[in-house]
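tool=predict chain=A
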Amino acid sequence: MDRLSDSSVGDARVAGDADGIDGPVRVDDPSYLVGVPDEFQRLWTPHRMVYIQQGDPGHEGCPFCVAPTLSDEDALIVARGEHAYALLNLFPYNSGHLLVCPYRHIALYDDATPEEVAEIGSLTQTAMRVIREVSHNDGFNIGMNQGAVAGAGIAAHLHQHIVPRWAQDANFFPIIARTKALPQLLGDVRAALADAWPKGDA
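tool=predict ok
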């Protein structure tokens, strides 16, 4: 390895190089860094490129507007009401992670009508009871991210998260490996929740 002096490379250092010596290395040869490990693990998710490439899909391409036009199985819808519906999150934090959405393409909670607010609340309560019955969870995280700056993945269409939590669900996977272990396939979760949903209850 052709090493440079500390003064010529500044802070450019790679720990544990081929010689087993820590210290400054050449930075004018990018090929040296090929294959050098770092502290991050990679979970490749090319299916999410659609969100990156398209940005805000708008009303026509909004997944929460499209979902109600599909079958419950295809859209992962658990229950349909008059003004809102509940479906599984395609990228769940925990198994059984539901979203409650109004049919209407609105962005913010204060854009919702009293009827939509009431049904979002009713669906949320029923979802909690059904998830608890099916999954025997210990608690919930419930909330809305309002706007992209607040973390909303699809900011243009209002949606409320209902995330079941268990006492032991914060293990080393998400903390160290930034990975969630999900024990059930989405289709199986949808079927279990839909079967347990009270008939005729939005």
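The chain has two domains: 1-38, 46-196. The two ends are 68 Å apart (CA to CA).
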